[in-house]
């Protein structure tokens, strides 16, 4: 959908921001650009909608060279979200969201109807539409920024550290929202971030850049975490690379057996077979249990198996009823497989 073919960007002051970049950003997928400060992520993003033009090389969006498109028209056809939301302070939230549809000549009524619909899409109440940006929290402003970018239903969304300025809890909520939206909308998204965890959560592919605008590796999160191309990538992904990989694998394939009966710890259940807690044999000690479902990650399972006094994870179905338990050893074995290091017979 978006293709960079040996794209080079050198600014007039002599700085090379992007060095012979060749990269494909697939249609309907999220490509995350990461790397240390100043490595050319924002410049790469801005060349897609011609806020910056390349010095050489070709960028194609939907098969067409962007330099052959009218810059203003191209920009209106691509959604753009930035860190400080970039909202117009003197316009209401609804008018902010309606900006691009109005520029495209939609007519006021239709543009406002679309803006109202989008408020709900991004998880805001209709009441928020009447307010001005400063009357919203940082997280709410970012939601408006996303709604504004989606207003004309562009096939491509560019997002430059859109969640960089909000606290970690709100950031996770915004990431969840984006993943939910993306499931419905399947936009081609290019997302810049400094945060490796954010990249792993959101990316279908992650492109890692090094200072001087060099692309070092582009791969799926699992591939990148399991097989970093070099020490730079491994260091960038951090010491917890192995745990991050476990956050991408789920419990579904890990075997489960019956809950223990009569051992030092037993699992107390309510009348609907929902786990209540772990009880000691003497009956005078109870430990909390956090039951997991098939879709939960191996990382969550490892964590729970360490927290559980029995070293067991309680597994439940969609209704919360116990289906079985999984041992720490089984989780370890699957964790090793996820790393491609499972033991083989010799
Ligand atoms: P950050 O993570 O800090 O936002 P980045 O990876 O997005 O950085 P860019 O903003 O693309 O990096 O900048 C890449 C390089 O190009 C930097 O050295 C920057 O100083 C330089 N640069 C960016 N814009 C210009 C410009 N208009 N003129 C001159 N140099 C520029």
Round the Cα radius of gyration to an integer and report it.
24 Å
Q: Taking strands numbered 1, 2, ... along the chain, how are they ordered across the largest sheet? A: 6-7-8-3-9-10
CATH superfamily of the largest domain: P-loop containing nucleotide triphosphate hydrolases
Which word captures the global form? globular
Work out the number of β strands. 15
What's the assembly state of these chains? single chain
Distance between the termini: 47 Å
Question: Counting H and I runs of at least 4 residues, what is the number of helices?
Answer: 13
CATH architecture of the largest domain: 3-Layer(aba) Sandwich
**CATH topology group of the largest domain:** Rossmann fold
**What percentage of amino acids are in beta strands?**
15-25%
Largest sheet: 6 strands, mixed
Q: Which structural class should the secondary elements be placed in?
A: alpha/beta
- Helical coverage, percent range: 25-40%
Structural domain count: 2
Say which molecules are bound, naming each kind only once.
adenosine-5'-triphosphate
What's the order of the H and E elements? EEEHEEHEHHHHEHEHEEHHHEEEHEEH
* Uncertain regions spanning at least 5 consecutive residues: none
């Amino acid at each position: 959908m978006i293709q960079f073919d040996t794209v080079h960007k050198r600014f007039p002051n002599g700085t090379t921001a992007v060095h012979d970049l060749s990269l494909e950003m697939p249609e309907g997928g999220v490509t995350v650009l990461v790397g240390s400060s100043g490595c050319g992520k924002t410049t790469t993003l801005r060349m897609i909608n011609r806020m910056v033009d390349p010095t050489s090389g070709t960028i194609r969006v939907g098969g067409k060279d962007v330099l052959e498109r009218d810059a203003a028209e191209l920009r209106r056809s691509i959604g753009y979200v930035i860190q400080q939301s970039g909202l117009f302070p003197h316009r209401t939230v609804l008018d902010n969201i309606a900006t691009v549809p109005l520029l495209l000549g939609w007519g006021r009524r239709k543009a406002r109807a679309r803006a109202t619909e989008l408020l709900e899409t991004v998880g805001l109440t209709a009441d928020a539409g009447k307010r001005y940006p400063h009357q919203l929290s940082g997280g709410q402003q970012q939601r408006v920024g996303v709604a504004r970018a989606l207003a004309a239903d562009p096939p491509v969304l560019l997002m430059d550290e859109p969640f960089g300025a909000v606290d970690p809890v709100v950031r996770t909520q915004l990431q969840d929202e984006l993943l939910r939206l993306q499931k419905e909308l399947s936009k081609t998204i290019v997302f810049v971030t400094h945060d490796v965890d954010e990249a792993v959560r959101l990316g279908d592919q992650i492109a890692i850049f090094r200072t001087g605008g060099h692309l070092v590796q582009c791969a799926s999160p699992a591939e990148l975490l399991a097989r970093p191309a070099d020490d730079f990538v491994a260091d960038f992904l951090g010491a917890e690379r192995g745990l991050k990989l476990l956050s991408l694998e789920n419990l579904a394939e890990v075997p489960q057996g019956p809950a223990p009966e009569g051992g030092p710890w037993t699992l107390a259940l309510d009348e609907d077979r929902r786990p209540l807690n772990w009880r000691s044999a003497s009956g005078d000690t109870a430990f909390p249990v956090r039951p997991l479902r098939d879709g939960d990650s191996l990382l969550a399972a490892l964590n729970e198996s360490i927290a559980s006094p029995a070293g067991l994870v309680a597994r439940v179905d969609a209704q919360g009823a116990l289906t079985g338990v999984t041992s720490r050893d089984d989780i370890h074995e699957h964790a090793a497989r996820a790393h491609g290091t499972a033991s083989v017979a010799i």
